[in-house]
Amino acid sequence: GGFNANVIRLLQHIVDEYSESLGGTDNIVVYPIGRKVAEKTAKMGLHVAGDFTGLAEKPNVKQCIDIAREIEQKFVSGEIDRVEMVYHHFKSAGSQILTRKTFLPIDITEELKRDRTRDLNSTVTSKEAQEYLKKNASAAEQKQEENVRPLNDNFIVEPDMNTVLSQLIPKYLHLMLYTALLDSIASEHAARMVAMQTATDNADEILRELNLQYNKSRQQAITNELLDIVGGSVNN
């Protein structure tokens, strides 16, 4: 169906969006995973970072890590200043959500939005979470909240924050890219399954209509033959 067409359409929209601010497509680099998007980027005349067509058919963790590390190095060196991913998120067999997600720089606000509905027992403190609690808590809970000391976010990190983040952030980015790839592959299989099921149902419906039409024609031919026999007997 429109699985690949939707990705290509969003890619075209993003390219047009950046072209207006950058004054062209010279500073846009695309990492196309899959044959369809690779062919489209070539037709659009965009700068392609490499050939990754085989990665869509056979997901490979090592290759995903290599791609992520290459992008990380370019981002740290200042060669690129923003990276976005376009893929389908697998929600269910009948629903695949087209997703545009920022890969770099890491957007913490998106992660905080997921914790907006946490209660006071949560170890995550955020402005959005506190506002949500104030709006939805009852009067008794609000009174109790006033008497409760705010959560302590002054954590001790060993060995130190920079060392921990330098290990966790690359792993997080590697996992994000590999997860997006698996998400896209699962969505593609689901889209293929739905398309084939629809084609099978349409073929069955056509066969049913043709079978009915055949039976009607056959019955009409038998009726005509009987009328000819009866008419000949009456004439005799």
Descriptive keywords:
236 residues, mainly alpha, two-stranded parallel ribbon, two-stranded antiparallel sheet, elongated
Report on this model:
The protein has 236 residues and is mainly α. The chain is 65% helix and 10% strand. The chain contains 8 helices and 4 strands. The strands form 2 sheets. The chain has a two-stranded parallel ribbon with strand order 1-2. The chain has a two-stranded antiparallel ribbon with strand order 3-4. Strand 1, helix 2 and strand 2 form a beta-alpha-beta unit. Helix 4 packs across helix 8. It is elongated, with a radius of gyration of 30 Å. The N and C termini lie far apart (65 Å). About 4% of the residues have low confidence.
Which structural category fits the helices and strands?
A: mainly alpha
- How many individual β-strands? 4
Rough outline: elongated
The portion of residues forming beta strands comes to 5-15%
Q: How many helical stretches?
A: 8
**Could you spell the SSE succession in H and E letters?**
HEHEHHEEHHHH
Adjacency order of strands in the biggest sheet: 1-2
Low-confidence stretches: 117-125
Give a quick summary of the entry:
By secondary structure, the chain is mostly helical. Helices cover 65% and strands 10% of the residues.
Topology readout:
Blueprint: H1 3-22, E1 29-30, H2 35-44, E2 47-48, H3 53-57, H4 61-77, E3 83-92, E4 95-104, H5 108-114, H6 127-136, H7 139-147, H8 161-235
Parallel strand pairs: 1-2
Antiparallel strand pairs: 3-4
Helix pairs in contact: 4-8
